[in-house]
Amino acid sequence: MERYYQEEIETASREQIHQWQSERLVKQVQNVWENVPFYKQKMMEAGITPEDIKSVDDLHKLPFVTKDDLKNCYPYGLLARPLADCVRIQSTSGTTGRRVVAFYTQHDLDLWEDCCARAIVAAGGTKDDVCHVCYGYGLFTGGPGLNGGSHKVGCLTLPMSSGNTERQIQFMTDLGSTILCCTPSYAAYLAESIQERGLGDSIKLKAGIFGAEAWTEEMRHDIEEKLGIKAYDIYGLTEISGPGVSFECSAQTGMHVNEDHFIAEVINPNTGEPVPDGEKGELVFTCITKEAFPLIRYRTRDICILSREKCSCGRTHVKMTKPLGRSDDMLIVKGVNVFPSQIETVLMNKGYPANYQIIVDRVNNSDTIEVQVEMTAEMFSDNLSEVSAKERELVNALKAMLGIYAKVKLVAPKSITRSEGKAVRIIDKRNLYQQK
Ligand code: DLL
User: Fold this and answer.
1) What is the pTM of this model?
2) 103 CA distance to ligand 1 centroid (A)?
């Protein structure tokens, strides 16, 4: 049995969790009703008052909060505490429009770091570990969140931040990093760089905690093999706190949501109706313990499935699948729904590295999709007919997966820009025409 960071909480009975969630929800609803005019107005519009919320079973009566609400309330409209009680802000990685700004009191930072500490312990972390954090530091929550969690566990923490791969590898070998925290795409890049330098035997990594972007099981196996580690998924979003909203355990069959702090629901994105466990839908979170920025029924746009089946690790908190895509990441090409993860699965099953880009365009009023894929050094060849045979093979495999024709262009090793944070996989040129 693993050593738990907060065993009594993480293995509590479902009845106990229900009781905690109910008590905390009732308090939180009263709190936002009194302190955030936005919530009071929304609840009045829905014809409810705090008295209507007696337990977590009444959650569905509460109105949703959307990303648009956050934008309209920017920057202070959702604050539930005086600004003087807040000690930190973090912000989303979005590059267009208004960013989302989240506020934290000291209590909020503490619970967020607790959640990250649980994730590190679930990945086998102890105070004897050297935790190498190369998520970005700054407004992005990745670096600060895992950094705080690592301190709580008592690991020796290396606050590397992202970039400067040469220095990352040098510290990793010199200081004997044992746990690596970064995006999966950067982990793949680091693995590639370590292999190229022939330093595989000099690194002591045993586990990786990778998240902040979509990654497939195929990519997990590839990273695990190249780095000789166990790779754990971690999920979160700035609006709800940051990384650690949920995390994977040794079972690696989904991520446990920290249910003492966040209530998870899955809804039908079209009707808003809750869907039962085991069914796919949009993930919605309610923050029941946060002080400064407690979102209620926040629609994440991430599509996933919840499961309350018994987990072999002993934890009882509900598990969510990896996000199966974002409702706003899904491409509609020629009327067909295309998720980048489907394309990644095909590429990796055929032995290609996870270095690819998807370019969607509109030519003569018809959608086109091109997948540019890097060859490995071993695959690379000057023989054009060999390359086009490989391209045809991928076109057929993609057609079988997606149901539509996607052009494939194999490109030379290292020609696709590597990411140090979240990878940019999709270039949708159709959006450019719309903005004109
Ligand atoms: O990405 C927080 C984070 C940092 C999570 C480090 C894990 C590790 P945002 O920048 O606000 O926050 O982006 C949140 O990223 O709604 C998902 O769509 C996506 N995402 C986060 N974790 C995962 C994951 C951070 N494990 C958005 N798998 C979320 C797939 C993920 N997508």
Assistant:
1) 0.88
2) 18
